[in-house]
Amino acid sequence: MARRKKVYEGKAKILYEGPEPGTLVQYFKDDATAFNAQKKDVIEGKGVLNNRLSEFFMTGLAQIGVPTHFIRRLNMREQLIRSVEIIPLEVVVRNFAAGTLSQRLGLEEGTPLPRPIVEFCLKDDALGDPLVAEEHIIAFGWASQQDLDDMVALALRVNDFLSGCMLAVGIKLVDFKIEIGRIWDNDFQRLIVADEISPDSCRLWDMETGQKLDKDVFRRDLGNLADAYTEVARRLGVLPSNVTPASKPTLIN
């Protein structure tokens, strides 16, 4: 059997050529990184959990009319996705102060924000994914004003959906980041949600205890990352309720 052609490898995923034109296979690795990959480890089962959780969120978004690159899950670690032209920006939506926002503005972590705040960061690991203003984005041609308006609208719809999902299972959606890509239907351009949505890209806190259930567990040495992600999956129904966090992830079909 011929080996698949690798198209791209990032910190948490590998992209391979898909079986049909315009498709890719997205493989979720067990690698965990923080602080722009200065801290690294391999967390057994992380890729399996993120594959299933991202499938759950992308499928839910499609059901409410939010377009995504997700086509279907192929196996425990891979999913078939549409090939898109990724806009070189991370779109960050914040509902509560945390992380760099707390550091920049001197806000106590957990402070509710007056409304969801949408920020843009340039996707550039060498520069540390710096925060950029809309003026920078338009001046350097990374996206047009119409693109920015559409990206904000998409991000806020994703925020509404994710906030509701998490609230229903006792989890506070503090913030998250998404990537957005362009696809073309003949001469018409559309923007769709791409990459992944998982605890790798969200801050998730237990509503009663404040326990962190996201990658901050790894960043701040707060416990076992797989246990935290397993708890999120269990609450959302991606895992059967009788799985104990200490065990290896056992996912339902």
Would you kindly provide a written description of the structure presented here, covering whatever features stand out?
InterPro entries: SAICAR_synt/ADE2_N, SAICAR_synt_PurC, SAICAR_synth, SAICAR_synthetase, SAICAR_synthetase_CS. The chain has 253 residues and is α+β, with helices and mostly antiparallel strands. It has a domain at 87-206: ATP-grasp fold, B domain (D-amino Acid Aminotransferase, Chain A, domain 1), CATH 3.30.470.20. The chain is 28% helix and 32% strand. The strands form three sheets. Strands 8, 9, 10, 11, 12, 13 and 14 form a seven-stranded antiparallel beta sheet that branches. It has a five-stranded antiparallel beta sheet with strand order 1-2-3-7-6. A two-stranded antiparallel ribbon has the order 4-5. Helix 1 packs parallel to helix 6. The chain is globular. The two termini are 27 Å apart. Residues 241-250 have low confidence and may be disordered.
CATH architect. name of the domain at 87-206: 2-Layer Sandwich
What structural class do the secondary elements suggest? alpha+beta
Q: End-to-end distance, in Å?
A: 27 Å
Order of helices and strands: EEEEEHEEEEHEEHHEEEHH
Largest sheet: 7 strands, antiparallel
Beta-strand content: 25-35%
pLDDT < 50 runs, ≥5 residues: 241-250
Indicate the mean pLDDT: 93
User: Helicity range of the residues?
Assistant: 25-40%
Tell me the total number of β-strands. Answer: 14
CATH H-level superfamily title of the domain at 87-206 = ATP-grasp fold, B domain
Helical stretch tally = 6
Give short descriptive properties of this protein:
6 helices; SAICAR_synt_PurC; globular; nucleotide-binding; SAICAR_synthetase; D-amino Acid Aminotransferase, Chain A, domain 1; 253 residues; Phosphoribosylaminoimidazole-succinocarboxamide synthase; ATP-binding
